[in-house]
Description:
Strand order of the largest sheet: 3-2-1-4-5-6-10
Radius of gyration: 20 Å
Structural class: alpha/beta
Distance between the termini: 56 Å
Oligomer: single chain
Number of helices: 13
Amino acid sequence: MPCHLVTGGSGFIGSCYVLAARRRGVRVVNLDKLTYAGNPANLAALHGDPDYVFVRGDIGNAELVDWLLQNYQPDAIVNFAAESHVDRSIVDPESFVRTNVLGTATLLRVAARWWSSLPAELAQAFRFLHVSTDEVYGSLQPGDPAFTEATSYSPNSPYSASKAASDHLVRAFYETYGLPVLLTNCSNNYGPRQFPEKLIPLMICNALDRKPLPVYGTGANIRDWLHVEDHCAAIARVLEAGRVGRCYNIGGRAEKSNLEVVQAVCGILDRLAPSASGPYADLVSFVSDRPGHDFRYAIDSSRIEAELGWKPAHNFESGLQETVRWYLDNTGWTENVRSGAYREWIAVNYAQRGPGGGN
């Protein structure tokens, strides 16, 4: 049975990958520090599964990582572990450097040393896949061509800078040590079990609570939206057949402005959970923009589509409706993750901004 060491496997994207891997018959060892966004409930369906192993720990703990590699002998490491929220990176950039840069460096160093000790057949089959973001490429303007794998890095936030640094380290370990790495850079993910500080679940939760729906600036910033299940299917395909040392961009071909997304969420809620207090869109509140807010991201997925035959299976409209319905059907999950720390963060982040421009 194949075995994957998945780091950050209790988070939003990582847990989706773990569940899909187990459905494919892959044994999973999940190493997760369980910071605020890591949630064991995301993997409750695997309770009692002998081929799912959870280990609470940090990718920066070299001794622990080495023990896991020696003990479980994985065929692949899939690195989801990261601090990933731009606003949090603006408040505390050092924590992003510790996890995304130094943690990845430790994981790579230990993995490379262990890999070099493997018999030739096992070493040849092993892969280290690093999951990254389109934000490393910087910002696009309307009409600019979408990001390709050849686009120069130009990160604009502490978060994207830390991910860019980790990407460079992954490439360096391939060029310097021959570690068989793969990189993926994805667009904005959405879907079930996303921590409610991100745009779509935040809008759903606030709308249901009849709280303001905070939208930065005028809501004109554009993102390319990718369903988390499509993202995880792409990662599995890259692991299966991707060219070692190569980067693959993964996008949903669904560019939407933030305001369009918020309005779409409100429209779905109006249909599925109408409120006697009026349309949910009435709750939209424009707040001052965050510093260094990239205007537009767009992914050109031509390489993964042409080389590996992957394409997104979800369209945004139906995928968003399924996502909203999941949150409506799983209010217990939402309440469990909306801890005091989460509520305090949301209050501080948005209250200090005050009203912004509208349209």
